[in-house]
Design goal:
The chain has about 240 residues and is mostly helical. It folds into 2 domains: about 5-20 and about 35-165, no CATH class; about 190-235, no CATH class. The protein is about 55% helix and about 5% strand. The protein is built from 9 helices and 6 strands. The strands form 2 sheets. It has a 3-stranded antiparallel sheet. Strands 3-4-5 form a 3-stranded antiparallel sheet, with no helix packed on it. A hairpin with a 5-residue loop joins strand 1 (about 190) and strand 2 (about 195-200). The chain is elongated, with a radius of gyration of 21 Å.
Amino acid sequence: MIISISESAEFRNLYTKLSNELQPAHSKKLNLLSATDTATLRVQIEIFSQVVECCSSTYPHLVGESKAKIVAHMDMLLRVVRERGKRISGQETDDINMEIQRFHRVCQLHRLKSEWNYRVCCNNPEVKECYETAHQIAYTIKKYSKEFDWKLKNALENLSKVVGSAVEVIDAERKEIVRAMGCKQGHWYKCPNGHIYIITECGGAMEKSRCNECGAEIGGGSHRLLASNSVATEMDGATSPAWPQ
């Protein structure tokens, strides 16, 4: 059973993949990646850094099966990033943001479970109920949302209180992955069905494509967005495209 971050195959595989893709830059050779691929690589590196940092800071405080469970959860997130390839849509970055937040909460749950205070009173009915509530929310098979995160934070705070833990339940200190794309406002758009995508470089639509999620037509031509598409204000607050229509 894998119980060490350094022994994680997913950690090694993704680290090697990202290192190889960055090699031209390290060697000062011509960068053959497109602007979109470069932006996606930046996002992948940001995800990798955040997930591994969270796991690394939590791991030394864990005992028993919690070590293996946290590494397995990290592996799952890294596998998704590695297998997704060179295309990560705006909607996917938003979903991944929430999954990173879930991982942060799961790490807090296992830290609480690994504390001496919890272990000496884990059979107490009140403690068991608080733990089961937090565990059920943390491992829900439903799409993790801000509402779930708020409920899980409250459940973790209740568990920490009943066991007298010194572990502070806080939000993840992380940058928004969306920011890692490095684009100014007005580069994020939505297809007719509401799926989000990004136009890099100037932000103006110069070609048509198909939505990764539903196959609807996206983009446009001559810096003009298709009438069926719209600005994704929820991504960066923009109300108009980066390139004037």
